[in-house]
Specification:
This protein is of the alpha+beta class. Helix content is 48%, strand content 14%. A four-stranded antiparallel β-sheet has the order 3-4-5-10. It has a four-stranded antiparallel β-sheet with strand order 6-9-8-7. Strand 1 and strand 2 form a beta hairpin. Helix 11 packs across helix 13. It is globular and about 70 Å long.
Length: 538
């Protein structure tokens, strides 16, 4: 029956108009219209966007602050900005821990515990109350049950090579494997269309996603550590820095948004071809976790650069790495990064409205919230020491100290700002965010076989928890970029604050500060940036 329904779906799906990026078709020919995460009618508009600057267009470099560099064309004009502290292919050759699947707390009770406190936070989204009402109707035994059942491995089709490896390791038929890779699962035995599944997995390799490089390793408590490492790439690709702004084509960041959106569509399509819940959950959770963390790295590095633009535009630029850019160069870089960090739906509206107006409106909104926050804090007796118009130290009469994100309104108070660092409780935000990520992977896994978890609970979780946390992380990343420049220019010591912000990212794909600093030095040497604007041979 499932195969018949799937055949009908494909028959009803119209062919996609090709979406081209240079000579490359971004949308694979096997992907039906129904699998796309954006409107098909927008495809002609997407194709009208100008293509991005290519790596081969770069002829020279100029340093920008501590970790950025301006890419120059043959005439010395700035055509793009790169972040030297992160590479295009973010996952390294080392195994990286993405989360835990299974175990004593891998249940819906953990999700309820994460969501319930949000009911008292300001004006919670309506979906939150609906999700909690649905969850609390479950029996205690159901809420506390491990979403990865003890006999899960009996429902998984293993490849012959995996079975041989299990036998060689002394594993008997009624034992869960101590470790396995996603490539050990025999998808051809269960996929509605093995051919389409293979095509989808092959397509994902262009995003550095390879099933042979994703594994689950059993823990002492019965759960599994989810690990990933990057697929093999050429040395040149591994060493290429990440482009964060394109001045030749300010809409080029939109291409990246489209590319990764299509990757998510392909993942959803591939997982949908697997009718066995535990199999679809194992592969879907792993790929979704990777895509989420990978996207967060890109977004947060871009946010740090956005602060450099805002500092130059709004604060006069004494601590901006981009102060040496011309006003027009900063404008184009600001628009490019603003569009890059937007969603597919909202981005198209902003491009239509006008990128510069939307970008400047966003900066003005930040300023207004910061003014309101300063007024609220002063009214309530806090002594403020500003870093700039958007960040400030606050100290209460009792001596409690915080470093505030003035442009980020707190959930529980209209004008009370969120703090980036609570000096009295330096581990508070880290613990909160680890709890959010732990619950997030449970929601992701459970959504593959509990319909309402994939619906209302997932939506409520994103709106009440993950979304607000990500927005706060974005402003913390901006603050981090500003503090780096304070250290570089004024030789101030912000090492404690930067280390705290780094820990609060709670992203396993993010490099340590020491590794990032070392990478910047290597990139500067490799590209000849330390010698000034050196022009490369074509």
């Amino acid at each position: 029956m499932m195969r018949i329904l799937f055949a009908m779906l494909l028959a009803l799906s119209c062919c996609l108009a090709p979406l081209q990026l240079h000579a490359e078709s971004l949308i694979p020919d096997f992907l039906p219209v129904s699998a796309l995460h954006f409107r098909v009618q927008d495809l002609p508009n997407f194709n009208s966007l100008s293509p991005p600057t290519r790596w081969s267009d770069v002829r020279g470099w100029r340093p920008l602050g501590g970790r950025w560099a301006a890419a120059l064309d043959a005439h010395g004009a700035v055509i793009a900005i790169y972040d030297l502290s992160v590479t295009e292919n973010i996952v390294t050759a080392d195994w990286v821990h993405l989360g835990i699947v299974g175990g004593p707390t891998f249940n819906l009770k953990t999700v309820v515990a994460a969501l319930r406190p949000m009911q008292s936070e300001g004006r919670p989204p309506k979906k939150l109350a609906q999700a909690l009402k649905k969850l609390t109707k479950e029996t205690p035994s159901h809420l506390e049950a491990d979403l990865m059942p003890a006999d899960w491995f009996e429902h998984v089709p293993w490849t012959e090579s995996a079975r041989r490896n299990f036998a060689a390791a002394g594993l008997v038929a009624d034992q869960a494997p101590s470790s396995f890779r996603l490539s050990d699962l025999d998808y051809a035995a269960v996929a509605i269309s093995p051919t389409l599944f293979r095509k989808a997995i092959q397509y994902l390799k262009r995003f550095n996603i390879d099933l042979t490089q994703i594994q689950y390793v059993r823990r002492a408590d019965g759960g599994y550590d989810l690990l990933v490492r990057g697929a093999a790439q050429s040395a040149a690709d591994l060493g290429r820095p990440m482009k964060i702004a394109d001045l030749n084509s300010v809409s080029s960041g939109f291409w990246e948004t489209i590319r990764w959106n299509i990757a998510g569509s392909v993942i959803g399509f591939a997982v949908g071809l697997i009718p066995v819940p535990v199999v679809s959950a194992l592969i879907g959770t792993a790929l979704d976790r990777f895509l989420t963390f990978e996207g967060d790295v890109r977004d947060l590095h871009r946010e740090a650069a956005r602060e450099m633009i805002a500092t130059a535009e709004q604060d006069g630029g004494p601590f901006s790495a981009f102060a040496s850019l011309t006003p027009n160069e900063r404008k184009r870089a600001g628009i490019s990064m603003f569009i890059s960090n937007a969603s597919i739906v909202s981005t198209w509206n902003w491009i239509f409205k006008g990128g510069e107006k939307s970008w400047r409106d966003n900066m003005r909104d930040d300023e207004k919230r910061a003014v309101d926050a300063r007024g609220w804090l002063t009214k309530h007796g806090e002594t403020l020491t500003p870093l700039n118009t958007r960040y400030a130290f606050g100290q209460t009469a009792s001596g409690q100290r915080r470093l505030y994100l003035l442009a980020r309104a707190s959930l529980w108070g209209r004008h009370h700002p969120t703090d980036a660092i609570n000096y009295g409780q330096p581990n508070l935000h880290v613990a909160e965010r680890i709890a959010v990520e732990s619950a997030s992977i449970i929601v992701d896994f459970g959504s593959h076989f509990i319909p309402y978890v994939g619906g209302i609970v997932s939506t409520a979780f994103d709106q009440a928890l993950r979304g607000p946390v990500q927005y706060t992380k974005a402003l913390e990343s901006r603050l981090g970029g500003l503090l780096e420049e304070h250290m570089r220019i004024a030789h101030e010591d912000w090492s404690y604050e930067l280390a705290t912000i780094d820990r609060q990212r709670v992203n396993p794909l993010e490099s340590s500060r020491a590794a990032a600093t070392n990478l910047v030095a290597q990139q500067r040497k490799r590209l000849g940036i330390d010698q000034g604007p050196i022009f490369n041979d074509p």
